[in-house]
Amino acid sequence: MKRGIALAVAFFALFTAGAASAKTLEELLKEKGVITEEDFRAVTRSRPVSYKPGEGFVFLSQDEKFRLSAGGSMQFRYTFTDKDDVNGTQQDTSEWRMRRVKLSLGGHAYTKELTYKLVMNFVEANTGKLMEDAYASYRFRDEFQVLAGQGKVPFSRQELTSTNGLQFVDRSVAVDAFKPSYDIGVLLHGNALGGTVAYHAGVFGGVGQNTLRTTTNNLLAARFSFSPFGEVKYVEGDFDESPKPLFSVGIDYFRDALKLTKGTTDVLETNNLSFAGSSGWLGKGLGTFQVSEKLDIDSGSVDAVFKWKGFSLQGEFLAAQAEGQASGILLRAQAFYVEAGFMVLPRQLEAAVRYSYLDPNRGRANDLQVDSQGVLSYFFSGHNLKLQGDYTNVHKQVAGKQSTDDRQVRLQAQILF
User: Fold this and answer.
1) Which CATH number covers residue 270?
2) Nearest Cα to 352, choosing from 392, 383, 382?
């Protein structure tokens, strides 16, 4: 274990060499007070091509009716897992991988009210998940906007937070087991009172990312959030050390239906839904049902987040059930996580802890998973360039055997350009 971690630390030390945030001449002049904010905006607006860290190269037409930003991001990860041998010798793993390699295009066309976004993750090129976001959105006013195309189903605050802005190396096991993730559809959304109130309501295909429905069933989803002290952006932690307390609470729900075919292997209709996969609550519990039938699926969650002066606290509770239309058999699941962090060094170093609980089948004993985690994040240029290292104790109950406690160390370098 020590040897693998030492090699990983050596690599990440090389990654940090020369890491610094480059600034344009105009940005330096503005910081020193040589030019005003108005002068800075006028200069940058007049450029047909510019570069913005974290967003990429920006192309702007002279009349400002067309704008295109082209950027990308990469996450390089090392994972060492020390498997628990309590039920027999297990093979430890030492894994190097490109976790995400993305190309992002976005901007507006014809008018600033018509925006678009396209994101491709090349790591998923052979899995049917190459294309992530692919949508256009029109703003009639802040309170009423319409989005069409592929995007995330509005469910779970942590899932709606970009992986570039997470407090840990990745999302909690609780969210990963319940999220539907990307789907194709139409979404109404908006906000009022400076972001104090926000809503999302949409109709989606119901079979997930880059997948077409072959029946008349669809997924219906809605989310509502309330932030009494002003908008709380979907970025974890409090890197900006909010000078005033920020608080937000959200609630969301979605309903779907999937056809199950029983046989030697239980198979759901073709889908790319995370909760229906092998690690999802539904995928784990298909054996609960005895006959081939359609399953009615209902999922909901509540979340809350608080930030102030470098301290952050966030948590979610998620619950779901699937009911056989013919048999009436029920499968119920629940999960939650809580995480808290603090900026130890302002805008440089953050420490955080997280506790996650997953019960994929409330009707079955000895199937719980509990993750206890700690993380350190070092920021060279905000989330645009950062290093993260976390430690996880993965406690799993195993039916008919002793519970296991695997120990996992992950180191990840992230760059946005």
Assistant:
1) 2.40.160.10
2) 392
pLDDT in tens, 266-325: 999 999 999 999 999 999 999 999 999 999 999 999 999 999 999 999 999 999 999 999
Q: Are 325 and 297 in contact (CB under 8 A)?
A: no
Annotate 43-64 with b (16+ C-beta within 10 A) or e (fewer): bbeeeeebeebbbbebebeeee
For the cut 80, the answer to whether the pLDDT of residue 220 exceeds it is: yes
Give the model confidence (pLDDT) of 89-119 as tens digits.
999 999 999 999 999 999 999 999 999 999 9
| Separation CA 209–CA 277 (nearest Å) | 13
**In Å, how far are 134, 200, 236, 318, 390 from 225, measured between CA atoms?**
24, 9, 16, 16, 30
Residue 78, helix vs strand vs coil: strand
User: What domain range includes position 6?
Assistant: 2-416
Domain count, the chain: 1
